[in-house]
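Notes from the 1:1 (GR / supervisor)

We went over the backlog. Supervisor wanted to see one worked example end to end before approving the batch request, so GR pasted a single chain during the call. The sequence is below; no edits were made to it. Supervisor asked that the structure be written out right there so they could see what the output format looks like.
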Amino acid sequence: MQTHVNPVYDYRRPPELDSAEPVHHPLVVVGAGPVGMVAGLDAASHGIPCLILDDNDTVSVGSRAVCYAKRALEILDRLGCGQRMVDKGITWNLGRVFYRDEEIYRFDLLPETGHERPAFINLQQYYFEEYLVDRIGEVKGLDLRWKNRVTAVGQDDRRVRLTVATPDGDYRLTCDHLIVCDGANSSIRRMLGLESRGQVFQDRFLIADVVMENDWPPERWFWFDPPFHGGQSTLLHRQADNLWRIDFQLGWDADPEEEKRPERVLPRLRAMLGEEAEFQLEWTSVYTFQCRRMERFRHGRIFFAGDAAHQVSPFGARGANSGIQDTDNLLWKLRLVTSGAAPDTLLDSYDSERVPAADENILHSTRSTSFISPGSGPARLFRDATLLLSKRCPFARTLVNSGRLSLPAVYRDSPLNTPDEDPFDSPVEPGAPACDAPVAGPGGEQWFLRILGNGGFNILYFAGAALSVDEERWLGQLRQGPVPLRILVAGLRADGQLPDGMERLDDREGLLSRRLDATPGSLYLFRPDQHLAARWRHPDSSKVLQALDRALARERTTP
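Structure output shown during the call:
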């Protein structure tokens, strides 16, 4: 049974084939997978014309990346395609862990209300890619070219040079910047003589996409040593269209091609689902755990993102979610640098922020892999003892690692942050993404992150019942900064007046102020990617403008 038929996209003859000289583009993205297409959409949202090149003419085959985290959905909301993902996907917040035939514990990844997006949705990667292609067709300034394969790349101080092969012949082009999103086996990385180093774990897993109808809840189920797959592990996720993703641990000695054969897969599924179960096998694949990354993600005018830059084991849903955060981090910086509002050194912060984020993902992924596949000896004894204890000892459950699930990166050590002067009791610290909450703002009832999705810097100031003359003065001075600042003022009483250039935000439930630990006089400076750059209990215009200079990697000379 086939629940999905891949579209085939039209190849169009590139106009560069008729040009004697290379045609110049501001930005080129190589790779039309999820990360590459999100990069293109983000570029368009910042007004950067972008050309996307891909050597294929369709979307991915099989479910592949299926788990999309809350933070990725919030980024996709800003780009105009988050709601379609949520509408089609399977929403879940709960996970259950089993040892042999017993449930040892369960967890809730988003136990509190007051968030627009769930902890996760499950959706087959081919749907995600189709939605991105559709969205690209709606956006001006984007050109997506199928059957355009990059065969050579080089750069100098002024531009990047590319040679591209098509069914009609080769052409050359140049660009100001190149973003490489061509996957774990990146051909661009190889052309430039760059390496991705790390660890390959000696284990293999089988993916089986199974079509079946049942009433199991939309949860993440993970088994250690289940009776139907003794000595190994199994993972179950529900996807759209009654498609279920099942991962079976195989061991390092398994033959990948042999294990994908239906006569090998079906007995495993029968043992798990029952002899009487009705199901159909749609797609299979075998993968190996790998955790690796490039030493640096920026190389002059060329930037690597997603699997081309870093690769992690699939448990934890850290691959595509991390790649989407890569582009979210990069594109606003490219816009400010190319417009002259920030120096080129701002682009160095892509490395200083996203390399540590990749290391954090690799650390969690490595630990998960070591727990799921401990081998023999002391590591397995520890793993099995932990699982036994976790049934009755809550402390042991914190040691059980079936994949620490993706969380947004916090850039704690970023050079763009301004350190706190005052104590705050909130996880939204400098370098962290903003929290969400229901508010009333410009346009009526909405979510706070939607308001911050305008692509620029935002100020959130918690006033008293009314703005004083002094507050109006120094808040007004913020409009003299090097880039436009949107100024949102919360806490005013209903009849409180605001000067021109400021906007009211009504935190009616008080949830936003609680999550930010805000008191009257508190101010928060948010970057275009919605990460917090600075916060104060008692700010003034000089402090805020200096923090803005720092967030732009500018020399901090603002008086």
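Supervisor's comment: Residues 348-372 form the longest helix (25 residues).
Batch request approved.
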